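tool_call: predict_structure(chain=1)
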Amino acid sequence: MTDPRFAGIGMTSARTRDRLVQRLREQGIRSAEVLERIRTVPRHIFVDEALASRAYEDTALPIGFGQTISQPYIVARMSEALLAGGPLHNVLEVGTGCGYQTAVLAGLVGRINSIERIEPLLARAKARLKELGVRHVRFRHGDGIEGWKSNAPYDGILVAAAPLAVPEALLAQLADNGRLIMPVGGEGGQELMRYTRREDRIEKMPLGSVSFVPLQPGVA
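tool_result:
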């Protein structure tokens, strides 16, 4: 990343990112790999220029179309939970959004298959990730509730929006020992969950209360 925009200055500088990483460590993020990705991925290029000075605050920010870029703690927490249990070679991401979570995952897993239902968001994310030199991502404009069956099974699935109940299609596309990390529930009562496939059964583990936009069907 030689482009000077990626290095940042002032409120987007390396020192500011280091302070964010320290806050995440204090909040319980333990994975050195995840923390390093949070430190090195330039979050400020994934938000509007007017919000760049707030990019390394631990808060969600608007990205248009009623969507948000998740707060860094949530990105780190979900990434850490996804990685727990071993290396990931084939990952499905539901909800590309601005591409920030994709960029963080790109340094931690093998191939990423990323679905976004809002076409202008997907186009913007693809452009940003190309700028960063992220190459091992397949993109699809589609309905994430249905997953991406042709590229299954997945040893990891991460969903960045909350349905009222876990979609059966996503569980069906998990490989044995594969992990699905996603928020579940209605507004004001969402729980971050980890579902792990163990042959013919699914293990469930709650990971804490969260607040995400709803997982919508169809495309836009």
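agent: The chain has a mean pLDDT of 94. Proceeding to next step.
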